[in-house]
Each structure stands twice: as structure tokens, then as C-alpha cells.
Amino acid sequence: MKDTPKPDKRRKYDAAFRAEALRLAEQSRSAQAAARALNIDPKRIYQWQKAAQTPVAAALGAALDSDTAAELRQLRALARRQAQELAILKKAIAIFSQTETP
């Protein structure tokens, strides 16, 4: 038997096609309709939309104005603080819910 690699059967989409698909989905307000028009799986458009909404993609895509950037920093700091407080409360509940056996 030959040890030749199998060809990759997955279709590859370039950035221009992805951008066009996202634009079409936004215009039609339906990823399903855009997927049908482009003859691709709707899940693929949902994945691209999710990837476009990540902070890294947002930072690479467009620069934020100073007010929005300041608000984003404040919200992230607040989220970190609340996560820390939640972790502390969970530990406190675990400590106080332990029953001591005499």
C-alpha cells in the first residue's frame, strides 16, 4: 500500500468570501437565508459571526473611539472584580456549610 496523504475534502473559504457572507447575513437579517443563497451550511455563518464578535476580532477590525474604549476598560475591570467576589463567596459558603461533628 502507498502511504499517500488523503486529500483534504473540506472547502476552504477566503476572507473576502467570509466578509461577503457576513454582509449578506446582516443585510437579510437571516443567516439561514444567506447560507441558502451562498449554498453553504448555516452553521458555518454562525461560526463566522461568533468569531467576528470576539474581542480580538473587534480590536483588529476597527479601532474604538476613546469613550467606548474607556467604557470597555471599566466594564472589564468590573467583570473581573465581580468574578473575584463570586469566587470568595463560593469559598465562604463552602466553609460555613461544613458541619462540625463533636
TrEMBL record:
Classification lineage: Bacteria, Pseudomonadati, Bacteroidota, Cytophagia, Cytophagales
Biological process terms in GO annotation: DNA transposition
Protein name in the entry: Transposase
GO MF terms held by the record: DNA binding; transposase activity
A Pfam cross-reference name: HTH_Tnp_1
Organism encoding this protein: Hymenobacter glacialis
SUPFAM superfamilies: Homeodomain-like
